[in-house]
């Protein structure tokens, strides 16, 4: 039988495609934002850190609201908040207002995560691992496309603000799409029973072992993923003496590697390996990459 939530899944993936743009949009436009906000690259890095501040302080409450009211409200609301951020940054007259908009984007990211990941698990209980990994593929795809948009704007003398307004418009269109899409009942226990049926000997995790390990992995993986995205254009301009337009392309090259690896990982998770295996080899791969 055809899955009734394919439309919903597509809309959530589009959200993360656009989020891939949001994740790098401040760093990619750093030369323009420093002039507009009368600051330097350090100031822009503080604004980028505000995204993380917004996420950290709202994850718990967004998770609570997602469990209480369902997955749809946080997913839909997050699209509006992201659109406000994207419209607000190019129009911000000073650093403080831009910082506030960045916190709003972090809050939107939390709401999006807390609605999307549980929804994907409920829509695809037997292949939730690979479906959640595809979120990263759409993130990488968005990170690949945005530098090309910025490059086009620079080459044709178009204001950098259009690189913000285009994803903002797409977020609002996707909000209308998701508003009409059905979401699974988050209180339906049949999905939980189906997952438990596949686990003949369920493992009961311990926070001080598995929990702390996952927190460390989450911290280091996000840090290593974000660091090149923030500073690659600056590295290209100041170290490699590249033009603003060409330095932004470095972000696209970085995203290609992420996209290929995520698609490969999604295939492996679906047929050959379990998610926990990836977590076990992650520290080794990280050490070699450093």
Can you describe this structure?
- With 290 residues, this protein is mainly alpha-helical.
- It has one domain (6-183, 207-289): Up-down Bundle (Growth Hormone, Chain: A), CATH 1.20.1250.20.
- It is 81% helix and 0% strand.
- It contains twelve helices and no strands.
- Helix 1 (6-28) packs across helix 7 (128-155) and helix 10 (207-238) packs antiparallel against helix 11.
- The longest helix is centred in the last third of the chain and has 32 residues, at 207-238.
- The mean pLDDT is 83.
Based on the model shown, name its key terms.
single chain, 290 residues, mainly alpha, Growth Hormone, Chain: A, 81% helix, 0% strand, globular
From the spread of the alpha carbons, the general shape counts as globular
CATH homologous superfamily caption: MFS general substrate transporter like domains
User: How many helix segments?
Assistant: 12
Q: N-to-C SSE series? A: HHHHHHHHHHHH
What is the assembly state of the chains in this entry? single chain
Q: What is the CATH top level name?
A: Mainly Alpha
Number of strands: 0
End-to-end Cα distance: 46 Å
Number of domains: 1
In the predicted model, the low-confidence regions spanning at least 5 consecutive residues are none
Task: Classify the secondary structure makeup into a structural class.
Answer: mainly alpha
| Helix percentage range | over 70%
Rg (C-alpha, Å)? 20 Å
CATH third-tier fold name: Growth Hormone, Chain: A
CATH architecture: Up-down Bundle
Major beta-sheet overview: none
Mean pLDDT across every amino acid position? 83
Strand content: under 5%
């Amino acid at each position: 039988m055809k899955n009734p939530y394919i439309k919903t899944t597509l809309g959530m993936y589009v959200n993360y495609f656009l989020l891939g743009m949001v994740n790098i949009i401040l760093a990619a436009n750093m030369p323009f934002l420093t002039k507009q906000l009368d600051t330097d690259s350090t100031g822009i890095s503080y604004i980028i850190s505000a995204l993380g501040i917004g996420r950290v302080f709202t994850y718990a409450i967004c998770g609570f609201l997602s469990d209480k009211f369902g997955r749809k409200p946080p997913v839909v609301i997050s699209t509006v908040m992201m659109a406000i951020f994207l419209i607000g940054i190019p129009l911000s007259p000073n650093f403080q207002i831009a910082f506030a908009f960045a916190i709003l984007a972090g809050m939107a990211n939390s709401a999006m995560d807390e609605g999307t990941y549980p929804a994907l698990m409920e829509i695809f209980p037997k292949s939730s691992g690979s479906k959640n990994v595809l979120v990263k593929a759409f993130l990488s795809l968005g990170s690949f496309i945005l530098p090309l948009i910025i490059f086009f704007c620079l080459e044709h003398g178009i204001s950098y603000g259009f690189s913000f307004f285009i994803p903002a418009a797409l977020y609002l269109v996707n909000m209308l799409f998701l508003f009409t899409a059905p979401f699974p009942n988050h209180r339906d226990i049949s999905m939980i029973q189906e997952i438990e049926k596949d686990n003949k000997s369920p493992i009961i995790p311990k926070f001080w072992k598995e929990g702390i390990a996952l927190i460390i992995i989450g911290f280091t993986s996000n840090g290593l993923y974000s660091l090149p995205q923030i500073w690659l254009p600056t590295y290209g301009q100041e170290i490699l003496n590249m033009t603003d337009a060409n330095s932004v392309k470095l972000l696209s090259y970085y995203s290609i590697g992420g996209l290929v690896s995520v698609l490969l990982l999604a295939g492996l998770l679906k047929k050959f390996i379990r998610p926990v295996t990836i977590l076990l080899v992650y520290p080794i791969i990280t050490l070699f990459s450093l």
